[in-house]
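S1.2 Input.
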Amino acid sequence: MQDVSILIQALPYIREFREKLFVVKFGGELARDREHLDAIAGDLTLLSLVGIRLIAVHGGGPQANELSELLGFKPQLVQGRRVTDERALEVAKMVFGGKINVEILSALRKHGGRGVGLSGVDAAIVKARKRPVTRVVGEGGAAQDVDFGFVGDIESVDAGLLEHLVGKGFIPVVSSLAADDDGTILNINADTIAAEIAIATRAEKLISMTTVPGVFRDFGTKEEIFSVLSATEAKELIRNGTVGKGMVPKLEACARAVTGKVREAHIINGLTRHSLLMEVFTKKGIGTMIVADRSGVDGAPPPSEKAAGAAAAGSP
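S1.3 Output.
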C-alpha cells in the first residue's frame, strides 16, 4: 500500500505538469559516475513518459580537467570560471560535444528515453560572442584583468529546433558549446546556457542538479539550506559572499531564469537517488527553490502550492 500511496501523491503533479516544459541541467561530476548517470537518465525518461517535455543541458568540467592533465597541461580557473585557450577549447569540443553527450544519450536509450544530442552550435541554437577582457575581483578584494580566451557570452537563443524536438517527444541533450557569426566555437557556462534556453522556451521549471543539498544558509557549517529564495534574495547572497564560488553561477542562472518569466527554478542534490522525482512529484520537494517574487508583485508568477508548502517548512 505504501507504494500505491506514493503513486497517488504524484497524480496531481502529473496532471499539473503534463505538456509543460522543464529544463534540467546537471554537471560533469554527476555524468562521470555511471550509477548516478543511470539514475538520472531513468528519472528523465519517466518524466518524459508521463508527458513532461524535457530539455537536458550538461557540463563536463571534471572530465575536461582529467583530459587536459592527460594531455600535459593544467586547466585554468578564475573565480570558478574556466579560462579556455586553444588547447582547452579542443578538449571542450572532445569532451562536451563528444564523450559526455554520447554517454548521456546511451543512458537514456537504456531506459527507453528518446535523446537527441546537440550543442549550441547546432542550427545556431545559441548565438554567442567572445567575452572581452574582464576585470575580476578575487576573494581578497584584489582586482585583475582576465582574458578568458574562447569563452563566450550569450547574445540570443533560437529555440525553434528544441521546441520541434520536444513537441515530437524527443529529449534534446545540449552540451555547453556555441559559436559566433564567424563560426568561432566558444565555451559557455552550462548553467548560463540552461537559464537562457529555459527563458527562450518559456519553460515551467529550470532544475539544476548539483552535488550539494541546496543553497546553504551558512556554507561554513553546511547544516541548513534555504527552502525558498526570491531572485532578489539570491542576488544578495551572491553580493555579500554568503554562497561559495562554486554555487555562484548556479544561483545566478536560477535568478536570471525566474526574472525572465520561468515560473520556478530549483537547485537539488543529484547525488540523492531520485531527487528529480522527489522535487517534481512530492509536495515538500527537495533542495532550494528560487522564484521571481514570493509575493507575486510586479506581475511575477506567484509561487505554486509546492512553493507555499516549502516556505511553510522553513523559508527565510
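S1.4 Remarks. Residues 297-316 have pLDDT under 50 and may be disordered.
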